[in-house]
Amino acid sequence: MPTMYSSAFASPKIVQHLNLRSNEKPLFDPSKSAPPTSFFGSTHEFCLSKTTTLSSQHRRSAVVAAAEAVKLRKSNSSASPSNLLITKEEGLELYEDMVLGRVFEDMCAQMYYRGKMFGFVHLYNGQEAVSTGFIKLLKKEDSVVSTYRDHVHALSKGVPARSVMSELFGKATGCCRGQGGSMHMFDKEHNLLGGFAFIGEGIPVATGAAFTSKYRREVLNENCDDVTVAFFGDGTCNNGQFYECLNMAALWKLPIIFVVENNLWAIGMSHLRATSDPVIWKKGPAFGMPGVHVDGMDVLKVREVAKEAIGRARRGEGPTLVECETYRFRGHSLADPDELRDPGEKAHYSSRDPIIALKKYLTENNLASEADLKAIEKKIDEVVEEAVEFADGSPTPPRSQLLENVFADPKGFGIGPDGKYRCEDPKFTEGTAQV
Amino acid sequence: MSSLVRQILRSGRLPVSGLAPLQQAARAYSSAGKEFAALNSMHASTVVIWLDPSVLNSLASTPQSKISSDDSLSQFLQITVREALNSALDEEMAADPRVFLMGEEISKGLLDKYGPERVIDTPITEAGFAGIGVGAAYKGLRPIIEFMTFNFSMQAIDHIINSAAKSNYMSAGQISVPIVFRGPNGAAAGVGAQHSQCYAAWYAACPGLKVLCPYSSEDARGLLKAAIRDPDPVVFLENELLYGLSFPVSDEVLDSNFTVPIGKAKVERQGKDVTITAFSKMVGFALEAAEILAKEGISAEVINLRSIRPLDRATINESVRKTNRLVTVEEGFPQHGVGAEICASVVEDSFGYLDAPVERIAGADVPMPYAANLERMAVPQVEDIVRAAKRACYRSVPMAATA
């Protein structure tokens, strides 16, 4: 393990060494005011006119910090396969997962503009490394909680592409029988606990799932080391529930990993304009847990950090806050014209496309040939095409489905005028009952 | 016989006639060989004692002259609503290890008995811990989330509605949420506007939730047990001022398997002239009003709703078809309240049976004032119910404009 990461986890304070602002000049002249503490160091962020350059500078230095650790490890030895970060199988698995995410989301955009998909659809293009990097390390019993940008989290967790596509089309064969939609993906078998529209709403739910693991271990005496991964964005880091859960997760040492997908934009609000201290990983140590920053455009780096964080949680050492610097290539949702973002910024991140980066790594280190990767891409194209066909051909939900599943115990609809429970009325299942 | 029990008997707190139900209770409550008493009530007639059955048996066979007896107490044991709730919680937690309690300032008795892993004292983070409860329920535990009062539930209302109530539907039945949100609801005494709102109408409007409002100890025990065993999210609205009141309960109520069906109202008092529906504290007021009306020749039927969602429209309509007049009573704000819903339901189903317009009594349409006399004016009183019932019976005395 690269030294930088193991020290980061061993003691939260050491993370301060990742000084992201060593090459930045503070706005205030230190000799005239109080000695530069990290508080004053952050005031340069308020310089709005230089937002883009500062942000890329700020981020570049962070990238350097994280990348150096990986380079350090690589340069320590010859490039023999045993020293690489992944094996061939793992590499192909990661590649396939990321390509699935990308192709699926692109198909969603196509289907939306053809009118097959409707409502709010939020695409994940560009952020695949975070989903793949974390979720591919989880077992089936581990839980994932996401936001409205949840298609790729569902796919990475193992929900079949055809189920997700049908759900998006609003068909009865969807993973939630068409009742959830794009923003509310749930899958009990694969422990995908949603899909929430309000930012911050998923974080306490994830904390509760982690609480359950601990409860099962300590009170029910079961052998349970399931962890929970909560995904959310930079905008959520200004929300009260985030802090409430950081506090309780650290207080009770819950097996949870808080993953911030910092793509710099909360719909049209720039993270730097909305946040007093935009460095998110620092908020972890404030609550007593390690905070780590990682380049979210590089799936291998994310995977290394994820291994450590998930290992920590499984061993019962408590939560971790991981800030992944990433970017979404498309707008906030398909209804968003995406006019606010600087084209230079977009170009910068496009050049760091995680799929292309992994492809380069695999081919340069002779882990896979071009042909292997092309075969994967072809396979994924077929999977997604088939998913669309399946969804297209599936039936829409029948009328009787309207009243189903409101309650687990259908007697919850109460007693009808004839004195019997309403759910016992045969018209209830036909969907024609008056409720 | 243990000295503790002897002490209690000698103090006159336990009628000899109360022994038989106690024996039943002891069978229900006793855990192997342990003897402990719940002495958290100051009311002289409401001590509930859990005893080893052999101790109780020996008690029963002790000659009467050696025990002070008190015949003024009824054949039934009386327990307070607080004890009813605590005993229900205790039994359900003992029966199912997945049940746990989470909230602020939780009952010390339960904390001592079950330990801090199952009775969790939280920081003041309603949204956070309500969400944690929902997440735990998603994964198969059965949380009971306690709010200090339901006014604080507004901090967590996103989780109650969006992640608890709607989840079974959004996930098409994959993820059910067996959670109970409980706490005092409605006006207490002199606590001001931000601590006095009644949330029955708000929560009852939302599909996916079950909303329960107990009145008596029997209601409290039965409904709470039913709520904890229920696989859906339940909002359990208690009342601060009812906690200390004691009600007689039969042996059946003390049984550990006693539950009250959700969605069924109870006719507390039979009558033939006017139907009065009420829930929570207002049931007591309605019963008092019924007594007063009886003296004036009006026989009122009092319905204790018990369950606001699902509302027992069948019972209400059946009653209205019998009496032809309806008065709804509630403590909350009048607009879009529970009474409005009951009135609409009766108009839809039993319009032809109504002989008079439906009378609706609710709290005043103002935030709750602090001054004691204003507060009394802002909450329905027994006189208001009597007046409305008389109006419904066309026997009212005209009076100057009121709120």
UniProtKB/TrEMBL annotation, chain A:
SUPFAM superfamilies: Thiamin diphosphate-binding fold (THDP-binding)
E.C. designation(s): 1.2.4.1
Domain Dehydrogenase E1 component: 97-397
A GO molecular function held by the record: pyruvate dehydrogenase (acetyl-transferring) activity
Requisite cofactors: thiamine diphosphate
Any matching Pfam family: E1_dh
Keywords: Oxidoreductase, Pyruvate, Thiamine pyrophosphate
Substrates-to-products reaction catalysed: N(6)-[(R)-lipoyl]-L-lysyl-[protein] + pyruvate + H(+) = N(6)-[(R)-S(8)-acetyldihydrolipoyl]-L-lysyl-[protein] + CO2
Domain of life: Eukaryota
One BP term from GO: pyruvate decarboxylation to acetyl-CoA
Signal sequence extent: none
InterPro entries, sorted: DH_E1 (IPR001017), PDH_E1_Alpha_Subunit (IPR050642), Pyrv_DH_E1_asu_subgrp-y (IPR017597), THDP-binding (IPR029061)
Role, per record: The pyruvate dehydrogenase complex catalyzes the overall conversion of pyruvate to acetyl-CoA and CO(2). It contains multiple copies of three enzymatic components: pyruvate dehydrogenase (E1), dihydrolipoamide acetyltransferase (E2) and lipoamide dehydrogenase (E3).
Subunit annotation: Tetramer of 2 alpha and 2 beta subunits.
Name listed for the protein in its UniProt record: Pyruvate dehydrogenase E1 component subunit alpha
Organism expressing this protein natively: Carnegiea gigantea
Automatic annotation (TrEMBL), chain B:
Key word Oxidoreductase present: yes
Essential cofactor(s): thiamine diphosphate
Broadest EC class assigned to this enzyme: oxidoreductase
InterPro entries xrefs: PDHB_mito-type, THDP-binding, Transketo_C/PFOR_II, Transketolase-like_Pyr-bd, Transketolase_C
Species of provenance: Carnegiea gigantea
Protein name as catalogued: Pyruvate dehydrogenase E1 component subunit beta
Role: The pyruvate dehydrogenase complex catalyzes the overall conversion of pyruvate to acetyl-CoA and CO2.
GO molecular function: pyruvate dehydrogenase (acetyl-transferring) activity
EC number: 1.2.4.1
Domain of life of the native organism: Eukaryota
GO biological process, one term: pyruvate decarboxylation to acetyl-CoA
